[in-house]
């Protein structure tokens, strides 16, 4: 039987299945810089009006294409399966992430509850360039987006960081926040105290222990967030774990001396600064991590408004208003209201996976 041959041979795609290898290739500094750029591009492209000629919308150029992620449910196995495609014209990045979530995996099969692969294609030809282990990418790019929000929306006081949750996202959020801001104290809370205790032990005995000078585990959320400047909620909770009455302005002690030659004086006062929250969990329309009254107190920022209105239970069930996409702050079309309570609802975007995959692909070939 004769078979048609392709016009040209296609290079074998890069396949990296190791979580640790993919993690090590995804550099934090590059990731933070690239995410800031692509999120600004995304928000700008979404606001651009379509070009119309003779009553027909022209589609000669797409800057960013990113539909809402598609999910199918597999209830008999307590599972779900999602697909996240996108195209980014800057770099001609074409990417799809496939992700599965099976709640019973850890207890029934000793397997992770979340598994993922990211496929990177050449946007000019559609040829597959790489297949990359996706859980590590998800962990890093999600935490990096939160760190960008902390940098942009917080009151710039980096004394105490509270982490609610002790899983993969807790670890990645801790690492990037400590590398970027160097909080003096870390407060941990988890439903199972033993898991938080284990995380504390890992932090203070690992090779990066210098990043975590003071870590304390709390029995309840209220005490964990009491003195926090920044709070990251990274749980699998389906009902609120963080209530409005627990999130209060913090007294900040300021003292020093004037350096003006003709007006030398000392100053010493206490001011109140509000809190910034990165809300990462509750990615389903009926799930919540933050109480409705807390959501309605803050200025709400999101990664993508369309997906947030469709997917975020914190927003849907509270009826809270979205103030801006984070990318709109980056491109200066909206302001950062850092003087008041700010909440970044971080659902994650396919363009973040595409940029991450591109960094990994380039870094791999630089080393090999």
From TrEMBL:
**Any one GO CC term of the record:** cytoplasm
Q: Name one GO molecular function term.
A: hormone binding
InterPro entries recorded: NAD(P)-bd_dom_sf, ODC_Mu_crystall
Q: SUPFAM superfamilies attached here?
A: NAD(P)-binding Rossmann-fold domains
> What is stated as this protein's family in its record?
Belongs to the ornithine cyclodeaminase/mu-crystallin family.
UniProt xrefs under PANTHER family: KETIMINE REDUCTASE MU-CRYSTALLIN
- Record's protein name: Uncharacterized protein
* Origin species: Cyprideis torosa
Q: What is the lineage of its organism?
A: Eukaryota, Metazoa, Ecdysozoa, Arthropoda, Crustacea
């Amino acid at each position: 039987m004769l078979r048609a041959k392709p016009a040209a041979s296609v290079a074998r795609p890069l396949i990296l299945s190791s979580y640790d290898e993919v993690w090590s290739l995804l550099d934090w500094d590059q990731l933070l810089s690239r995410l800031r750029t692509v999120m600004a591009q995304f928000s700008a492209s979404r606001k651009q009006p379509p070009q119309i000629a003779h009553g027909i919308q022209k589609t000669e150029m797409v800057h960013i294409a990113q539909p809402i992620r598609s999910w199918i449910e597999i209830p008999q196995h307590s599972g779900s399966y999602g697909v996240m495609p996108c195209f980014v014209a800057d770099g001609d990045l074409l990417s799809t992430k496939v992700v599965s979530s099976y709640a019973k995996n850890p207890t029934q099969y000793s397997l992770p509850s979340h598994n993922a692969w990211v496929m990177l294609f050449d946007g000019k030809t559609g040829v597959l360039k790489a297949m990359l282990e996706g859980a590590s990418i998800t962990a890093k790019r999600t935490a990096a987006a939160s760190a960008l929000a902390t940098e942009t929306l917080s009151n710039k006081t980096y004394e105490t960081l509270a982490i609610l949750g002790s899983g993969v996202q807790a670890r990645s959020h801790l690492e990037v926040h400590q590398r970027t801001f160097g909080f003096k104290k870390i407060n941990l809370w988890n439903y199972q105290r033993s898991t938080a205790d284990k995380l504390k032990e890992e932090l203070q005995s690992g090779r990066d222990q210098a990043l975590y000078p003071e870590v304390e585990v709390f029995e309840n959320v209220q005490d964990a967030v009491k003195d926090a400047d920044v709070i990251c909620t990274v749980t699998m909770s389906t009902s609120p774990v963080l209530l409005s009455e627990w999130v209060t302005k913090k007294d900040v002690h300021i003292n020093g001396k004037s350096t003006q030659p003709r007006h030398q004086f000392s100053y010493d006062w206490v001011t109140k600064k509000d809190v910034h929250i990165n809300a990462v969990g509750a990615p389903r329309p009926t799930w919540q991590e933050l109480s409705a009254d807390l959501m309605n107190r803050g200025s709400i920022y999101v990664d993508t408004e369309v997906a947030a209105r469709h997917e975020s239970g914190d927003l849907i069930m509270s009826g809270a208003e979205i103030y801006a996409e984070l990318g709109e702050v980056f491109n200066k079309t909206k302001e950062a209201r850092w003087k008041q309570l700010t909440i970044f609802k971080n659902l994650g975007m396919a363009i973040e996976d595409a940029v991450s995959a591109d960094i990994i692909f380039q870094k791999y070939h630089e080393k090999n």
